[in-house]
Every structure is written in C-alpha cells, then in structure tokens.
Amino acid sequence: MVEDQDSGFELIEEALQGEFELTQEIDPARAWLRLPDEEFDLMIISLDLKHADGLRLCSQVRSIDRARARTQVKRQALRRSFARAA
User: Domain ranges in the chain?
Assistant: First the structure.
C-alpha cells in the first residue's frame, strides 16, 4: 500500500481484517523500485499523497502489468509452437 498517512494505512488494515499481508510504502519512488523484485496481489495507492502524484504511479504500475501480460502471452505462444514442432 502506498500511503503517506499512518491513519489511512490503519483504516485499510482494519477494513481488510487480516485477510491480506499489508506492506506500507510511504514514498512512491521506493514503491516503484520494489515492483520488479516483489509480487503483489493487490496494490492500493493513495491519490492524495503529499509529495507525489498517486495517479501517475497508478499509470506506471498499469504499464508494467501490460508489459508482463504481453510477455506471458508471447511465452505461451512460443511453448505451443515448440510443442507442435516436437
């Protein structure tokens, strides 16, 4: 969760009632750097960050997801192609 207010993080944490393991990142730049190395099932981004644009971060995350999806489709197509050739 990218949220620079502890109260916002605590509110979401309480609403989810322990169903998910939550990780808070205050700095959107640090959150962005974590994405290649970690997998998240859900990303909650505050749009009202003090020193950053949450909407821009959302857009950047979506571009990564699209690239990953294209890569997965290409890999599946290659596997099918190799399986047919074998």
Answer: 6-85
